[in-house]
Amino acid sequence: MADLILHHYPASPFSEKIRLILGYKQLPWKSVIIPNLMPKPDVVALTGGYRKTPFMQIGADIYCDSALICDVLEHLQPAPTLYPEPGKGLARTLAQWADEILFWTAMAHNLGPKGAAHMFAGAPPEVAKAFGDDRKAMRIGLPRIRPQDAAASYKSYLRRLSDMLDDQHFLLGQVPCIADFAVYHPLWFTRVRTPVVADILQLTPAVLDWMDRMAAIGQGSMEKFDAARAIAIAAGTDPMPVGQNLLTDSTFQDEHGIALGTRVVITAESFGPEPTTGELIAATRTHYSLRRTDDRAGTVHVHLPRIGYVLKAAEAE
Ligand SMILES: N[C@@H](CCC(=O)N[C@@H](CS)C(=O)NCC(=O)O)C(=O)O
Description:
Layout: E1 4-8, H1 13-24, E2 29-33, H2 41-47, E3 55-58, E4 61-64, H3 66-76, H4 88-110, H5 113-119, H6 125-138, H7 147-164, H8 178-193, H9 205-215, E5 222-224, H10 227-235, E6 263-268, E7 276-283, E8 287-294, E9 298-305, E10 309-313
Parallel strand pairs: 1-2, 2-5, 4-9
Antiparallel strand pairs: 1-3, 3-4, 6-7, 6-10, 7-8, 8-9
Helix pairs in contact: 1-3, 1-8, 2-10, 4-7, 4-8
The structure holds glutathione.
């Protein structure tokens, strides 16, 4: 099988989730560092529009969104599992809460005035402004949480997480599952990237001990790679046929009245409205797949999860 190439940057929390899962599953990976702001020409050459971080490339197959990447990694390396039985529905649901609610609460706390000053310390003011403008343009469908409200909610969430760790090493048992990786990454950002606002974690020592256990998993065996070589790999490889790629299901499930073969546009429901356009080649219970051709990357298959994404026919745009 072609190499796993993770396109990410060090400060990206959702990338930290995937880096640790690669370590947990002992999957060797190649690392392409991408910009944290637009423009991202090398990213868009592969994804066709999706600009969020991380995404994963295997040959000419591009897997967007960390939730979908987790499913691919599970299929590739089933043990140790991210979705232990019983309770895998609970694990996925807790993970979704973490990615959608805990994440934004923690980040509103992390990137309040004190945390933001720390993050951009020493950088010219234009850098902070460019970052702020970029994220403002991405902010669709999200409530703005004031830092003081965020801190109040974050404390309650940390207390609940601490309660879950009363008599077990990980959130849902004695081994980590998808929920642990999803809860960990926003807390990691607090502790490692904005330590000036990390006092909040001191109130729940059991959570800090659990974070130590999570960090100890490590990021596995990584090799530095670059975007030009990653694009050349896509250009020189045929995408895997639908049904034979690393997504488990291929049964067509039509909720939209959009036939396979239609030119479609997929956008995120919230945060990051940049559209990805292509020919719909799969719409299953869990994901959509598009075929598109790029001048540099050639023909690629771009895969996005169903949950959190909007599918429309391109002509309806
Ligand atoms: N639902 C997405 C969320 C990804 C996301 O929001 N990533 C942040 C960075 S951690 C992002 O894309 N920020 C803007 C950027 O990197 O350009 C996932 O699970 O991958």
